[in-house]
Specification:
- The protein has 288 residues and is an alpha/beta fold.
- It has one domain: TIM Barrel, CATH 3.20.20.
- Strands 3-4-5-6-7-8-9-10 form an eight-stranded parallel sheet, covered by helices on one side.
- β7, α6 and β8 form a beta-alpha-beta unit.
- α2 runs parallel beside α10.
- The structure holds NADP nicotinamide-adenine-dinucleotide phosphate (NAP).
- The site of NADP nicotinamide-adenine-dinucleotide phosphate has 27 residues, from α10.
Length: 288
Amino acid sequence: MAILLLMPTHAIRTVELPSGVRIPALGQGTWQMAEDARHIDDEIAALQVGIELGLRLIDTAEMYADGRAEQLVAQAIAGRRDQVYLVSKVLPSHSSRTGTIAACEASLRRLRTDRIDLYLLHWRGREPLEETVAGFEALREAGKIGGWGVSNLDVDDIEELLAVDRGAAVQTDQVLYNLARRGIENDLLPWCRTRGLPIMAYSPIERGELADHPTLARVAARHHATSAQVALAWVLRHPDVCAIPKASTPAHVRENHRALDLHLGAHDLAELDHEFPPPRRRVPLEMH
Ligand code: NAP
């Protein structure tokens, strides 16, 4: 696949999808970008710095800023489309077979490209999963998407998905996962692991809140790092989990990139477990 040849896979760690495609373990989110015209230049600069550093997975959605986040991504990746692994999402209300195809085509126009690398169902709505999968597969056959996945699906939903015709082509489940939201460690994460399905962790800094946490600051101080870096390194300690923090300044992107070099030791992990205990029983999947 052309993308693989062009991506500097040596530069940052990658996570392998079931298709064999390897994607950067650390990417960039875009929720709440393009909402305020005063910040757009910084947001584009941040995404571009990230691309230069190897954070070449960009996560967006038709929902974000009513399509303007996809337009902003188009500006950020202009002239370097082939260096980027592009993820976007269809809203549940558009996720019938024909609706999924139409939503993808609208996203392609906003993104000013002819393919989305990974196209996700944003969360489960009323449309039967068969319908969405049929739309995804038609898009894949037409070369408009490289693969497809889901978001915010818990174990029971994914089991249902796998029973649908061609449902086993799912490439990832993008879910809320960070130190303060560890519920998936009880069931979804091990379940996905045994089936070779990687998790894409959204809100890895808990929407910025973990960047100010005193326990993370204590751990960070031992490594001359920052709390945000500890939050990201903690998510990235799993070889089959990628993280997509959103950062709207080049300084935050540079800081987040350095989380790839931070390795938490047993003492750090124990201190973090004490403050943020792992789940002892099943916790229904949380969402932002
Ligand atoms: P997040 O990445 O956990 O946190 C973003 C916040 O952290 C922003 O306020 C950002 O500030 C701040 N931040 C980033 N780097 C920082 C640093 N080094 N130091 C201090 N603060 C820092 O939360 P998120 O945006 O909710 O999640 C990330 C992405 O996941 C989203 O953008 C979106 O692409 C995706 N997502 C998907 C779903 C879904 O349902 N599938 C739901 C939520 C999110 P600045 O902006 O000022 O840099």
